[in-house]
């Protein structure tokens, strides 16, 4: 990461609430082609979330604790605050002296921008201002939120505007919290009804919806220079497994999440990392 920070734009996308099993299934079935073409080997990496709900997980992610590979570690991290005794800080880790990655990248000359989705990013109550408050610039409006059937395309439009307004020589760290997977998501599946509610199938349909529009986000972020991208979930959610519904609980479908990192080429090339 020490070679990437300063030379690339950076994109972090959290597909809020996305389950690993659903993400892996759709990639294998060819139902998310725009995402799958960027996944190393065409598959999601299976990882463990750093938290069981949005606020806890993002606090960890912004401190450099991205979802952890589910194989025995320790696993070197991409980013880490300087911390004595850290077993996951390695030679390739971008180490910073600030308490969070966002302020560290601002110190490196990046414009840091948040395009929020779920309620922890809506800046309405004080709690909804904590995470977006880490950024130099943050955006949220109701059309980005969980109740909007067109949330992701609205978020992408705002991201395109952010990129277009930035001076060419200014590096960008863009964070997008995608709300479409979060409940309610029934409206993303044709024929589903509010009365029937959300299900694993409507969750999958929401990911297909995101896939139809994510190419625009990738194109915008690679329009100026190469971009290093991380696309992952912050936690999963339960749809009746062992009697559980939702998240903020310790179930396998909540803790196991999809993860991918890759390079979006500038105007000339593209390569997996």
Automatic annotation (TrEMBL):
Pfam families: Sulfatase. GO terms for molecular function: hydrolase activity. It comes from the Bacteria. Keywords: Hydrolase. The keyword Hydrolase applies. Transmembrane segments: none annotated. Coiled coil: none annotated. Residues 10-251 form the Sulfatase N-terminal domain. NCBIfam families: fam_STM4013. This is STM4013/SEN3800 family hydrolase. It comes from Streptomyces narbonensis.
């Amino acid at each position: 990461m020490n070679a990437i920070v300063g030379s690339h734009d950076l994109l972090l996308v959290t597909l809020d609430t996305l389950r690993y099993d659903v993400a892996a299934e759709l990639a294998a079935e060819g139902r998310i082609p725009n995402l799958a073409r960027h996944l190393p080997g065409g598959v999601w990496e299976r990882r463990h979330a750093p938290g069981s709900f949005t606020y806890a997980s993002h606090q960890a992610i912004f401190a450099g604790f991205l979802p952890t590979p589910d194989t025995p570690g320790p696993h070197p991290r991409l980013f880490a605050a300087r911390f004595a005794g850290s077993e996951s800080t390695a030679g390739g880790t971008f180490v910073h002296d600030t308490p969070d990655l966002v302020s560290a990248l601002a110190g490196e000359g990046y414009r840091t921008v948040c395009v929020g989705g779920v309620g922890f990013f809506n800046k309405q109550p004080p709690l909804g201002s904590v995470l977006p408050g880490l950024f130099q610039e943050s955006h949220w409006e109701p059309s980005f939120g969980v109740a909007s059937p067109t949330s992701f395309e609205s978020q992408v439009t705002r991201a395109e505007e952010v990129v277009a307004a930035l001076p060419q020589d200014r590096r960008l760290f863009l964070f997008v919290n995608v709300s479409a997977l979060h409940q309610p998501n029934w409206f993303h599946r044709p024929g589903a009804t509010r009365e029937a509610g959300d299900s694993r199938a409507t969750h999958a349909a929401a990911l297909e919806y995101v896939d139809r529009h994510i190419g625009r986000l990738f194109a915008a972020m690679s329009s100026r220079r190469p971009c290093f991208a991380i696309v992952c979930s912050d936690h999963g959610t339960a749809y009746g497994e062992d009697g559980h519904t939702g998240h903020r609980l310790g179930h396998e479908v909540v803790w196991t999440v999809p993860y991918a990192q890759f390079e979006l080429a500038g105007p000339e090339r593209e390569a997996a990392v």
